[in-house]
Amino acid sequence: MKRIRTTLSLLLLVVTVTPSLAFAQAATAGDINDRIRKEGMDNSHIMKTLHTLTDVYGPRLTGSPKLKAAGDWATSQMKTWGFDRVDMEPWEWGNVGWANERAAGYITAPVKDNLTFEVLAWTPSTSGAVTGEAFQMILPQRPTQAELDAYFNTVRSQINGKIVIWGNPAIIPVNFESPAKRIADDVIARRFDPNPTASPGPQGPPRQFQPQPQEPKPGALSGADVNTQVNAFLIASGVKVRVNDAGREHGQIRAFSNGYDPTKVVPTVVLRNEDFGRIARLMKDGIKVELEFDIRNQIYPEGKTSYNAIGEIAGTDKADEVIMLGGHLDSWHAATGATDNAIGCAVMMEAARILKAIGVKPRRTIRVALWSGEEQGLLGSQAYVKTHFGSAEAPLPAYSKFGGYFNIDSGTGRARGFGVFGPPEAAGQLRAATGNSFAEYGFGGASASASRGLGGSDHTSFNQAGLPGIGVQQDPIEYGSHTWHTNLDTYERVVEDDVKKSAVIIAAAVYQLAMADNLLPRFAADKMPALPNRN
Question: Using a CB cutoff of 8 Å and minimum separation of 24, what contacts does 201-204 make?
Fold first, then answer.
């Protein structure tokens, strides 16, 4: 009887193990990439996810109810897809939430017309519809305290009850050489060549209108000092609204914030350059210009606590080790935050969904993270890394179990390569994870970095800690030139074929890291690059 029971047990073991062995052999033979590609290209959920994050929950300013609701929806969606754990992990930001509910603006004299603008975040509402004569304020360039005080004294009696037009309109030249939308294949080949012999070419999407460095001026106030004093002066002088020039072409507007305390600023808008220029030219002719604004904003004290949205696919024999992927869910408020960065979140959610849908059983845990507070300085990811992993100088237990974090945050462009913090061997393992499987997508491989500098996007929060953050190099498309932080950052600017292929590539790389015998190589403790000097 004992022999019969032993035989039956062996048969049951064979039946249980054989499918796993067959799957592993198929994956080793490259079948896994075919399955990933088919699921990702034929059954993609990316555009539906993007639609929900943008059209339903956009914009998603840190601290706002829409960002919290977007995270709740994303975690619920990942649970629906069969993820094993989801959570909204809080971190304390300390600033109130803010949202604009509606805003309207008009020029009412000497002509009547609508104005196109965005409200500056964390500025207050108007007291209903307010009207006033436009008054142009032009400060001395990089003023000293004496120069600033003298200027204030010259205009103090003139601006009560006025709407201030701030500065001169920017002159935006016609761009006769539009930036490229793709990175040339030969540039990608050089950039990710493991044995480079020439310069890899420029990195990242182009940025327009970069400020030029200025010579120091003795006694000049810092920009922050000037801004603080100007804000206080405008409030004390009874200014109704401040109007800033967007300073960009073709109606593009970037609206950020003026601090985080609405009690210390006047209602402020960023007006498209075309409207700002019109008003300034009329005033230069000596014509009185009348404006009207109606701005309604809301403050949310509960926004002081923000959240990172987390979804997880449990590992098997190495479940205590983790491979992460993600992007930042928060956005600026001028548009619905599609290319920056709902699409990054949608791609990473999709990459993990693909792996769940095709039934893989990863050895390591796969964890998706959708960050908040990125636009305020990578705050959500910094808080997460500090809480969960520590740093090279002060590691927590999970520090040694971390296997890499993939980050997307450069718009709709297709993934063209990976940049990983670590020794050359880390790039070598990443390169092997994708091989030549996605050459037809224009994917070039991986390169290594030794910089622990913080900035750019959330993968650098991991790099700063000495962990392998992996930034995804993408085609620029129109990111730097049109959609980055502007009022054009909407669903319509996403290229569906590009983002599907990005998800496929990332799913394949994540799978290989989750299944490998060893974690990505790291710098040894005695060779860990030093943190940059912050002085």
Answer: 203/473, 204/410, 204/473, 204/476, 204/480
Query: Which residue bears the tokens 């080949």?
Result: 189
Which helix (H) or strand (E) segment holds residue 483: the answer is none
Q: Which of 91-100, 227-236, 330-339, 430-439 has the lowest mean pLDDT?
A: 430-439
What is the C-alpha separation between 527 and 531, in angstroms, rounded? Answer: 12
Strand order in the sheet with 446-449: 85-92, 305-313, 364-371, 318-328, 402-407, 469-474, 415-421, 446-449
Q: Which helix (H) or strand (E) holds 78?
A: helix 65-80
Mention every residue, 6+ apart, whose C-beta is less than 8 A from residue 112: 106
Distance CA 7, CA 1 (A): 10
Torsion angle of the four alpha carbons 209, 211, 212, 213, in this order, in degrees rounded to the nearest 10: -160
CA 165 vs. chain centroid, Å, equals 31
Angle at 351 between CA 350 and CA 356, to 5 degrees: 90
Which of 216, 374, 394 has the alpha carbon at shortest distance from 309? 374
Give residue-wise pLDDT tens across range 455-488: 999 999 999 999 999 999 999 999 999 999 999 9
d(CA 173, CA 249): 8
- Tell me the residue type at 274: E
Residue 403: which H helix or E strand, with range? strand 402-407
341: preceding bond cis by omega (within 30 degrees): yes
CB contact at 8 A, 103 and 269: yes
- Give me the residues paired with residue 282 across strands: none
- Give CA 408 to chain center in angstroms: 8
Query: Closest by alpha carbon to 402, among 519, 508, 316, 506?
Result: 519
**For residues 507 and 348, is the Cβ–Cβ distance under 8 A?**
no
Q: How far is it, in rounded angstroms, from Cα 468 to Cα 448?
A: 10
Count, residues in the chain: 535
Q: 3-state class of 475 per DSSP?
A: coil
Q: Is the pTM of this model over 0.85?
A: yes
Mind listing the pLDDT tens digit for each residue in 128-178?
A: 999 999 999 999 999 999 999 999 999 999 999 999 999 999 999 999 998
| Nearest in space to 280 (alpha carbons), one of 189, 166, 364 | 166
- Report the distance separating Cα 462 and Cα 445, nearest Å: 21
Ramachandran region, residue 442 (left: φ > 0; alpha: ψ -120 to 50; beta: rest) = left
User: How confident is the model over 226-243, as pLDDT tens digits?
Assistant: 999 999 999 999 999 999
Give the residue ranges of DSSP H helices in 121-162: 145-155
DSSP conformational letter for 419: E
Give 170's contacts (C-beta < 8 A, 6+ positions apart).
245, 247, 248, 273
Supply the Cα-derived Rg of the chain in whole angstroms.
27
